[in-house]
From TrEMBL:
Coiled-coil zones: none
Keyword RNA-binding: no
EC number in record: 6.5.1.1
Domain RNA ligase as annotated: residue spans: 87-243
Protein's UniProt name: ATP dependent DNA ligase
Domain annotation RNA ligase Pab1020 C-terminal: ranges: 254-378
Signal peptide: none
Domain of life: Archaea
Enzyme class: ligase
Gene3D superfamilies linked to this entry: 3.10.450.740, 3.30.1490.70, 3.30.70.2160, DNA ligase/mRNA capping enzyme
Natural source organism: Geoglobus ahangari
Family annotation (InterPro entries): Lig_Pab1020_C, RNA_ligase_dom_REL/Rnl2, RNA_ligase_Pab1020
Pfam family, one: RNA_ligase
Keywords from the named record: Ligase
C-alpha cells in the first residue's frame, strides 16, 4: 500500500492500519483535481499521525500532508500562562471560520479541510486568492489558514466585513513533519508573498501576560470576535486557545438551534468555560447577571425558534450562500457534500456577472424529527 510506504510504516503497522479501517477516500476523482491520482485521509489518529492527515499519489510522486494538531484550551489565564509558557507568550487573534491547509500538488493548489478532504469549493477559492509563487519557492511548506467570510459552506460570518471568502494564515508548517515555523518567520513570508495572516495582538512577558490577555479578550468580546491563540514565539511549545464569552454564547446559540444534531459535550464544555471565566474575571453583580442573561438567551431563544418553525409545518435548516466560477466545480462540490453525508437542498441558483451564486439549505433532520415527535405528544 502506497500509504504505508510513504509514511515508512512497518509491515505490522501497515496491517494494523488496514485492520482498523482508518483510511478513507479524500476526494472525488475529477479533472479539476488533475494532479491527484489517488488520495486517502486518516479518519482517526493513528500513532503519531494526526486525524485529517492526507497521503496523496500525485503526478509528481507521493505527498504527505499532516493533519493539523488539536489545540488544547486554557480555562484560566494567569496560572495556565505561567505554567505552560517560558519567558514570553505571543497572542494572535483566533478568527472564526473553518480550518484549511493549502499545498501545491503538480501545477495547482489544493485545499484540505480539517478532516482531510480535498474540498472543491475551498480549492477553487485558494487558486483565486493565494499567491502560487509561495509554493514555487517553498514546495515543502503548507499554509494553515482560517477560511472566513459570509460565503462559507461551514461557518458563514459577517463580522469581518468579508462578503465572500478569504484566507488568513495562522501557521506555516513543514509538510511531512508538521514542524511549524516561528511566528517571526511566518509573518515575514506572508508579507513577502502578499498573504493575509491572523493578527498578532502582542508579545508579552509571561509574568504579566494574563492582564494584557484579559484586556484583549474583553475588547474582542465587545467586537463580537472569537478569541485568541497563545503561542511560544519560536513555536517550540504547543499553543493554547481561549475564547470570549460572546463566542461561547454564539456557539450555544448555534448548537441549541439544532440541538438534536449536536452532541451534549459541545454544549456542556462551553457552559463550563463561562463558569471559569466569570470566576477569574471577578465580575461585579451586574456583569454576572449580564453573563447569565446572555447565556440563557443563547440557549432558549434559538430552540424556541426551531420549535416554532416545525410547529408551523416547516423544517429546521441552515442556509448558506456560495459563489463559483464554474458550474462544473459547483456540481463537484454538491457531489462532495452528498458523499460526506450532508443532507441539503439547493434553494436557489443565480448568475452574478460571470459567476454562479447558489443558496444551499442544510436540513437538520434529527432536530426537525425530534421536535415533530414531541409536538405530536410523544414523551422524551
Amino acid at each position: 500500500m502506497f500509504v504505508s510506504e510513504a509514511l515508512g510504516l512497518s509491515r505490522h503497522a501497515g496491517r494494523k492500519l488496514e485492520e482498523k479501517n482508518i483510511l478513507r477516500r479524500a476526494f472525488i476523482p475529477h479533472p479539476f483535481f488533475s494532479d491527484v491520482i489517488e488520495a486517502l485521509r486518516f479518519d482517526r489518529k493513528f500513532g503519531e499521525i494526526e486525524e485529517g492527515s492526507l497521503v496523496a499519489k500525485t503526478v509528481n510522486g507521493v505527498r504527505v500532508v499532516r493533519g493539523f494538531p488539536k489545540i488544547r484550551r486554557a480555562l484560566t489565564l494567569k496560572p495556565t500562562i505561567r505554567k505552560h509558557f517560558e519567558k514570553e507568550v505571543a497572542v494572535e487573534e483566533k478568527m472564526n471560520g473553518y480550518n484549511v491547509r493549502i499545498a501545491r500538488f503538480g501545477k495547482n493548489l489544493y485545499a484540505m479541510t480539517r478532516r482531510g478532504y480535498i474540498c472543491p469549493y475551498t480549492t477553487e477559492k485558494a487558486r483565486e486568492l493565494v499567491n502560487p509563487d509561495f509554493f514555487k519557492d517553498h514546495p515543502n511548506l503548507v499554509l494553515c489558514c482560517e477560511a472566513v467570510g459570509e460565503e462559507s459552506p461551514f461557518v458563514p460570518k459577517s463580522l469581518y466585513g468579508i462578503e465572500r471568502l478569504d484566507f488568513f494564515v495562522f501557521d506555516i508548517r513543514e509538510e511531512r513533519t508538521n514542524t511549524p515555523l516561528s511566528i517571526e518567520e511566518k509573518i515575514r513570508l506572508c508579507e513577502e508573498y502578499g498573504l493575509k495572516y491572523a493578527p498578532l495582538l502582542g508579545v508579552f512577558d509571561v509574568r504579566t501576560a494574563h492582564e494584557e490577555v484579559r484586556e484583549i479578550i474583553e475588547r474582542l468580546g465587545r467586537e463580537g470576535r472569537e478569541g485568541v491563540v497563545m503561542k511560544d514565539p519560536e513555536m517550540r511549545l504547543e499553543p493554547l486557545k481561549y475564547t470570549t464569552s460572546e463566542t461561547n454564547a454564539g456557539d450555544l446559540r448555534y448548537a441549541f438551534r439544532y440541538f438534536n444534531d449536536y452532541g451534549k459535550d459541545f454544549m456542556f464544555s462551553r457552559i463550563v468555560r463561562e463558569g471559569f471565566q466569570s470566576f477569574e474575571f471577578n465580575e461585579s453583580e451586574e456583569e454576572f447577571r449580564e453573563r447569565c442573561l446572555r447565556l440563557g438567551m443563547a440557549i432558549l431563544e434559538p430552540m424556541v425558534r426551531s420549535i416554532r418553525e416545525v410547529a408551523e409545518g416547516g423544517k429546521v435548516v441552515e442556509r448558506v450562500r456560495l459563489r463559483f466560477r464554474e458550474f462544473e466545480v459547483m456540481n463537484l462540490f454538491l457531489e462532495h457534500m452528498r458523499s460526506t453525508g450532508v443532507d441539503f437542498e439547493v434553494a436557489d441558483i443565480r448568475k452574478d456577472g460571470g459567476e454562479i451564486v447558489i443558496w444551499i439549505e442544510r436540513i437538520m433532520r434529527s432536530t426537525t424529527d425530534k421536535i415533530r415527535n414531541h409536538l405530536e405528544g410523544n414523551p422524551w
